[in-house]
User: Fold tRNA pseudouridine synthase A from Mangrovibacillus cuniculi.
Amino acid sequence: MRRVRCIVQYDGTNFAGYQVQPGKRTVQREIEQALTMIHKGQEIRIAASGRTDAGVHAFGQVFHFDTPLSIPAEKWPIVIQTKLPSDIVITKADYVQEDFHSRFSVKRKTYCYKIYTGNHKTPFKRNYAYFEQYDLDINKMKKAASKFLGVHDFTAFCSAKTEIEDKVREIYSISVEEQEGDISIQITGNGFLYNMVRIMVGTLLEIGRGTRPVTSVETALQSRFRQDAGKTAPPHGLYLWSVDYE
Amino acid sequence: MRRVRCIVQYDGTNFAGYQVQPGKRTVQREIEQALTMIHKGQEIRIAASGRTDAGVHAFGQVFHFDTPLSIPAEKWPIVIQTKLPSDIVITKADYVQEDFHSRFSVKRKTYCYKIYTGNHKTPFKRNYAYFEQYDLDINKMKKAASKFLGVHDFTAFCSAKTEIEDKVREIYSISVEEQEGDISIQITGNGFLYNMVRIMVGTLLEIGRGTRPVTSVETALQSRFRQDAGKTAPPHGLYLWSVDYE
Assistant:
């Protein structure tokens, strides 16, 4: 048996999220079904770097599986693709050590949140970016975003459903960039809690609109009260951008 | 009664084309249903600049309708939008003279065909651009495209189903532009026959791949044989870009 690591892109629009759920179309299920077919019915399970919610996209999700088949690494994406629907694309594969684990070996993850502004929505972005009708003050958003940098307790920036006790995470970088009305917020950290990126972005959006003070990021990080942070931004603007390993 | 002209964007992915067909989800049907609701059940019919096929998108389709309602022009997009699904967006409306007709008053139309190249498909463009796996020779495509300029008989570049007798059309401009692997072919003319843009693009694609000589555009324009032109490019890369009137 050898362990294969794959990088996968998916359009989250028509999935009930990444993780297998009974009776639902999920990314994990589609990939496991494809691999099971390739292994002539032998059930193959995959492990990914983490879940993504319904509507959330992936530009560089990572998963691994173990296989008895001797297929050259560069052929794996082509072989798996023949059994996959067009909203999931395997972009790369390689063989890794047995102690590699897509989830437990993660060193850093990067998420990207896309926003577009303008006079009206456009049908071409409706599933791929969040539409903001009002002008956003990018400089205020940049200033507030920088306060997330470093090690913080993110209790105020995660869903009440979060079961993990340790809510301390480190943010290595965060950028807010605008180009012709398209805004990208890119965040790299050592780990992210449930809904953490979407609540961080929701808070920055309210700051950009002027309905929340720039200082509220610091306030919420210190108070650890969920009510001190902004609303959870919708899923369809969010992309799991890349995952880095040791 | 006053005549209202609207500009509309739509994502053609989930439509069986523009024109009403029994039992099918079409753009015309969705808009007519919306307008009929706004007119409290009074049936409203719309006339567009022309049809688009299943999978074809519109960035600037134009249609008109007649109404007894006194709604300010700038409010019409908002009013109609409340009754429309998210894959159709009205971007502009104005009142026009009674003798204006979305189809018969057309002066020029512009189409855009989007192609992307790379090592693999991406799920995010699968419905919005044509994927070309092999390198395309852009200079050959530009050279061949320029031969479409001017007045020609486009018999070789339309579907055999075309019922219109006069197949002479004038192309005012055609451009082939590449940016980081994304190629856009933009074509403006006084009118287009059934499948004409897709056959023009299909021919340019084969020229770009090197499987067809650059001179074949001139050959096919002169011979008027459909077999002398390339295959019909798929619908999902095509956008009705804009329509100009007198």
